[in-house]
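Per reviewer request, we include the raw input and output of the structure prediction for the construct analysed in the revised manuscript.
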Amino acid sequence: MHILVADDTPDVAEVVVQSVRMTWPEATIATAGSGNEALSAFSEQHPDLVILDVNMPPPDGYMVCEQIRNMSDVPILMLSVRDSINDKMRGFDLGADDYLTKPFDHMELIARIRALVRRANNQMLNDVPEPECVSIDEPTRTAVVGGRRIMLTSKEFRLLSFLIGQAGTVLSHQQILENVWGEGYRHEIHYLKVFVRRLRRKLGDDAAQPRYIQTEWGVGYRFVGPLEREQELG
């Protein structure tokens, strides 16, 4: 589980982080101290849960919540000293899944997080369709997803072919860059991110709930989608 904690009060952020780590020691946690930092971290890291303070340097938590909700269905828990029904309703209207007022009890915070994660997992099981089989065609340098032919650039094709050839294996950024771009590009991770984003768009994949190209945070990527049995890879 990957969690983003956005709060401009370091003491509060630390309480949240330590509470999460005590309960889920395997979780990775990113922090942000402003609305802009929160949006940037969300776009880069695609967390599984966002814990969002309302009173942050602009954009405030309400605006951040609205922008995140326009991009993703990720669970959002809002924290605030504002405890009026109007404040809570505003948060829910903008897409928050839960609203917890400060000061809060450690056990209540954990209970709220557990409920959100459980609800999100159940929703994913019910809503995410089975991924369609993927195959690649070397002569035409195209991919076929569920019978739909997708045109790829030469570099996109080489990237997809390499990922599929190592399907199920976690490949580091450096491994992929060296094999697709060449040894001189092993540190150009931004190249890789751009092409993975383009591939996902063409495959109809969603970075938040990947069906084909899974992000291994801080490491690289892994191809996880089903393949045509008879397809000869690369």
